[in-house]
């Protein structure tokens, strides 16, 4: 009989991944050792290496789990409300940004982690670009008028800068920037009909 995941007791493997993630977010990647993870999970230290051959394997599984969950969350969110604001709000999720920053720091010392992040980042960017391209296409916006990659990089550049600064304890101007971007997104979505017309006229002149 299937039991919903919310009510199923977590497996030992899941407990260890959860414990590692809590340590990562609370104290940084350097705190994620086999002994600390086991203590956080309330199990024997030997079980860490039983379920994960090495600490790199644990980090990789932790990252892959969040990557898969992030992809599913974005797909689900876009099904409910396909808009630029949805893509933006997903990008400024503070939990996800803090998690990613720790892994970027870790990747400077672990090639396997760096390779995994690079591969995953490209796949996630493709997912975001597909979402933005679909939004623009459904509203009649030509990619020549508003390239999806430009929209994505503009939004992600802001969110990543905010995340880096917050990790350093810098927050001045962040609230104003978030409000500005959200006003810009709202205005852009209201102006989509005009942009669609501009794209059509531009294309017509090009073909003459």
Structural notes for this entry:
76% of the residues lie in helices and 0% in strands. It is mostly helical. The protein folds into 2 domains: 1-53, Arc Repressor Mutant, subunit A (Orthogonal Bundle); 56-207. α1 (12-27) packs across α4 (55-80), α4 (55-80) packs parallel to α7 (111-138) and α8 packs antiparallel against α9 (174-190). The protein is elongated and about 65 Å long. The model is unreliable at 1-7 and 200-208 (pLDDT under 50).
User: Into which percent range does the helicity of residues fall?
Assistant: over 70%
Structural class by SSE content? mainly alpha
Q: Which stretches are poorly predicted, pLDDT < 50 over at least 5 residues?
A: 1-7, 200-208
Radius of gyration: 21 Å
What's the β-strand tally?
Answer: 0
pLDDT averaged over residues: 87
| Quaternary organisation of the protein chains | single chain
How many separate domains?
Answer: 2
Q: Judging from the principal axes of the Cα atoms, what is the shape? A: elongated
Order of helices and strands: HHHHHHHHHH
Number of helical regions: 10
How widely separated are the two ends? 65 Å
Q: Describe the sheet with the most strands.
A: none
Strand % is under 5%
């Amino acid at each position: 009989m299937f039991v919903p995941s919310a009510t199923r007791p977590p497996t030992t493997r899941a407990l260890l991944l959860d414990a590692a993630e809590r340590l990562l977010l609370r104290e940084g990647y350097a705190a994620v050792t086999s002994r600390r993870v086991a203590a956080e999970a309330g199990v024997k230290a030997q079980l860490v290496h039983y379920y994960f051959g090495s600490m790199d394997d644990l980090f990789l599984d932790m990252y892959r789990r969040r990557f898969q969950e992030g992809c599913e969350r974005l797909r689900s969110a876009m099904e409910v409300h396909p808009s630029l604001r949805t893509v933006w709000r997903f990008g400024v999720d503070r939990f996800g940004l803090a998690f990613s920053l720790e892994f970027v720091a870790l990747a400077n010392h672990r090639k396997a982690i760096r390779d995994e992040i690079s591969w995953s980042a490209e796949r996630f960017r493709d997912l975001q670009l597909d979402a933005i391209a679909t939004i623009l296409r459904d509203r009649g916006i030509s990619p020549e008028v508003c390239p999806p990659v430009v929209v994505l990089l503009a939004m992600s550049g802001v969110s990543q800068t905010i995340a880096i600064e917050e990790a350093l304890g810098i927050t001045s101007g962040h609230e104003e920037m978030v409000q500005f971007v959200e006003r810009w997104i709202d205005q852009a979505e209201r102006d989509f009909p005009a942009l669609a017309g501009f794209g059509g006229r531009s294309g017509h002149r090009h073909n003459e």
